[in-house]
Amino acid sequence: MRTKSYIPYLQVAPLAFVFGAFLVVPILTIIVVSFWDYDFARIIPDFVLTNYQELLSSPVTLRTYLNTLRYAAIVWAVTLVIGFTVAYFLAFHVRSDTWQTACFLICTVPFLTSNIIRMISWIPFLGRNGLLNSALLGAGIVNEPLEFLLFSDFAVILAFVHLYTLFMIVPIFNSMMRIDRSLIEAAYDAGASGLQVLVNIIIPLCKPGIAIGSIFVVTLVMGDFITVRFMSGGQSASVGLMMSNAISLMQYPAAAANAVILLALVLLMVGAMMRIVDIRQEL
Amino acid sequence: MHGRKRPKSFYLLGAFFILFVLFLYGPMSTIFILSFQGPEGGLTFPMRGVSLTWFRNLLEKQMVGDFAGSFTRSFVLGIIVMFLTVAISLSGGLAFRHRFRGASVIFYLAIASLIVPSILISLGIGLQFRIIGWDTTWYGSALGAHLTWTLPFGLLIMFAVFNRFNKSYEEAARDLGASPWQVIRHVVIPITLPSLIGIALFGLTLSYDEFARTLMTAGTDNTLPLEIYAMTTNVTTPVLYALGTVTSAFSFLIIVLALGAVTFLRWRRARHGSDAGKGV
Lengths: 283, 280
Known about the structure:
- Chain A has 283 residues and is mainly alpha-helical.
- Chain A is 71% helix and 1% strand.
């Protein structure tokens, strides 16, 4: 194409500026500050390892990381099963394009509304006097209201699944729509059962979508603090919550050290998942 | 597969899908109903009468903090983020149609921007501004923080658009003597307009609802999500639900407007049709 060689650089400059100023520099700042010292009111430029030493020697840190990983694992498994099933229904069972688009939109619209409001909306449902408890009491299934429904690990995981399942649905649906339908017809003609088609054709061809969805869900859960704080009522811990507590106490270098460890962990996990998929080919 | 009788699995999966949709929208619809709770009513059912008390409460400043101010800030910020996201994504998408040095670096930065936890962006920008000695503001640092979340989506949508873009339209325009700017203005933008509206929708709504990236970057004036979060810790009346209803209705209005615009464009395109061959 006849384009002057400097044009692409001009076109990409604003993008490069935003990522440089608001992604690269902030991350570098976090890395630098994680070696700084602090007292109750200030952060002091220095080079100390105490922030890391304190974090790594505390049993609370390990427990918090394990708890966060546990959330990530459970939420990943649940969203994968629900997301795959919903995407499968949309891609292979809904026949008209209009219905397919409509159902797809129904699944994606909540992504564009407030996460906090979506969490708040569980209160009248799960609370002590909520709809679920009233129904269970009314039906005589339980004798007193269940306390574990709201402000518990159960509520945290429920909210995560509620918020993030569509991050699984969209990429898996995208992968499914690219599967050549004649492959499936051929398998059926050759005598394959529905289950064999699912296991030997659809699931392998959906791997890129599953990987992208997993990357989204795992990173969102690993970095979360608001869902855990709100839905557990402050009773459960996560790495993000630990950081945000340090931030509210103005212990920025401690929060920064924790951020560096979290970032390294998240990048390792993403790196492992990226081996399955070349993202550039998926667009 | 068409024309066959629907298998049993269709009904099972269909039931699963309906349950999933109920799971998605059920809780939201309960707070919608409860926001019309009577003045004596509480945070859960039963409804004690029906009233607009809690919506009226929302407008009284002293009751719930600064709803009007925070809404205005969030809306203005969302509009700014929307325009910048569309412009920067389109421009970046155009750049990626050519080879240039550093293309893969920018691409991986966009991916990194999606996967780096929001609280890190928030903390990093907050610290960065603090060290430089600048004040964090919703129209400065928070704007940058929001762009790191909306731009990757915009850029990825542009990639998908240009992967399917037929270059012969541009070549035809150039052959007819159009300047590069005219090609973009009269060929590229009109063809990609539905996707650009999609990017605008993402930019506006994601910014309007963003919490974590705003937490340490908004400075002294709260945006709406920060205000709502503050309310969850100290408000125990249905005014919280009224706020939820108003802000969700606002999001839905924007979504409907965007979808309406896209549908209208499709309809107009279909009605005018292609004039290919009509000159013969």
